[in-house]
Amino acid sequence: MLTPLLVPLLTDQALITIVVVIAVILVVGTTGLVVARRRRAELPGATKPPIEAAEPQVGDDAEEPRDTPTRTLEDAELPEAPAATLETPESAQGRLVRLRARLARSQGSLGKGLLALLSRDKLDEETWEDIETTLITADVGVGPTQELVEKLRTRMRVEGVGAAQAREILREELVALVDPSMDRTLNVTRKETQPAVVLVVGVNGTGKTTTVGKLARVLVAEDKHVVLGAADTFRAAAADQLQTWGERVGVRTVRGPEGGDPASIAFDSVKEGIAEEADVVLVDTAGRLHTKTGLMDELGKVKRVIEKSAEVDEVLLVIDATTGQNGLTQARVFAEVIDVTGLVLTKLDGTAKGGIVIAVQRELGVPVKLVGLGEGADDLAPFDPEQFVDALLD
Ligand code: GDP
C-alpha cells in the first residue's frame, strides 16, 4: 500500500538497492529449502522410496542399455520421514547356535537311524543294506551312498565295532562326504569403486525372494550398505515382497513395472548401488523354467547387462530341499545356463532328507553356502559341514 506513495520519494540508487536486497532474500530462501531437502534425503533412517526403473520400450535392447535415467535421492519424491522403526537382524553367529537345534530336529532320523544300525553287534549284509536304504531315502544319492558304505565297511572291519567307534567313524566319514575343503565364503566385499554384486537364481517357489530378503538382513547385521534389485518381474507381488523385506532393515529396493525387462532393472539396481557407494547389490531374478533356451537367454542377458557396469561376484542358486530329485534336475538346468558359484538349500526344516546337501554339491561341484531353516526373518544360516553333521548325530 505504502509502496506507490514512497516510490516518488526514493532516489534511483535507493530503488536499485531495494530491488537487489529483495532478490538476494529470494535466492537465499530457495537455496536453503533445496539444501534442507537434500539433507533429509541423506538422513539415516529416512524412508527412501523405491526407484521405479524406466519402463522398457518395445525394441529396447538391454544389451546396450540406454542411459536409463535412474532417479537420484534428490529427484525422488520424499515423504515426511517417519519415526524409524527398523529391526535389528540377528548376527550370523547367533543364528548357528539357534538353528542347529532345528536342524537336529528335522534331520535326526537320518543320523540316529544310521548310528543305530552301525552300533549293532553284528554288521551283516542285511544291516549294510539297511544302511544303504537309509542313505538313499535321505536323498544322499547313489554314488555318494556307495562310497560311504564302502568306507564304513572297511573302517568298521579294521577299527572294530561298538557304539562309540561307530559314532566317531560315521561322523568323520559324513564330514568328509560334505567336504569341508570347499570354499563357502560369500563374495560380498566391495571393491574400490564398485559394490559386490550377487545374483540370486532358481525356480519360482524355491524361496528365492525370501532368501534375498534374509540375506539382506545377514549383511545389514554386518553393517553393510545393501541395495536390492527386484528383477523378478514375472511373479506378481515379488517386488512388493522384496521391498517389504528391505524396508524392515532400512534397505532400498530398485524396482520396475510388473512384466518389465528384468535386465533393465538389474542394470538400474547396480547403477544405483554404484551411485550410493553400496557394499552389496542383491539381485532377485525370475525363475521361469519354460525352456532351457529361454532361461539361458534371460539369465545370460541379466548377467551381461550388469557386467556393463560391474562384475558379478556371486551367482547363488536356490534349491528347495523338499523337492528331492526334481530339485536336483532343475538345479542341473540352471548350472548349465549360468556359472553358479554357491548353493542355497531352503526348507531344510521341512524335510528329513538332508542328504540333498551331499548330492547337489556332488552333482554340481559347487558348495552349499547357506541353508534356510524356517520362514522366520533370521532363519538363514551360513552352512558349516561339521555343524551340519553334528546336528545329524545329536
Ligand atoms: P520364490 O518364488 O522362489 O521367490 O519363493 P518365495 O521366496 O516367495 O518363497 C516361497 C515360500 O517358501 C514362502 O512361503 C516362504 O516363506 C517359504 N520359504 C522360503 N524359505 C524357507 C525355509 O527355509 N523354510 C521354510 N519352512 N519355508 C521357506
How would you describe this structure in keywords?
single chain, 394 residues, alpha/beta, Four Helix Bundle (Hemerythrin (Met), subunit A), Rossmann fold, 2 domains, 9-stranded mixed sheet, 9 strands, 49% helix, 11% strand, disordered N terminus, binds guanosine-5'-diphosphate
What does this structure look like?
- By secondary structure, the chain is of the alpha/beta class.
- The protein has helices spanning 3-6, 12-42, 92-118, 125-137, 142-159, 163-178, 208-221, 238-248, 262-275, 292-306, 324-337, 356-364, 385-393; strands at 51-52, 196-201, 226-231, 252-255, 280-285, 314-320, 342-346, 368-372, 380-382.
- Helix 8 (238-248) links the parallel strand 3 (226-231) and strand 4.
- The longest helix has 31 residues, at 12-42.
- 40% of the residues are buried.
- The model is unreliable at 1-9, 27-49 and 53-83 (pLDDT under 50).
- Guanosine-5'-diphosphate binds at residues 202, 204-210, 235, 346-347, 349-350, 372-375, 379.
Task: Count every helix, treating DSSP H or I runs of 4 or more residues as helices.
Answer: 13
CATH homologous superfamily name of the largest domain? P-loop containing nucleotide triphosphate hydrolases
Count of distinct structural domains: 2
Tell me the series of helices and strands, N- to C-terminal: HHEHHHHEHEHEHEHEHEHEEH
So, CATH architecture of the largest domain?
Answer: 3-Layer(aba) Sandwich
In whole angstroms, how far apart are the ends? Answer: 90 Å
Largest sheet strand order: 1-4-3-5-2-6-7-8-9
Can you identify the CATH class of the largest domain? Alpha Beta
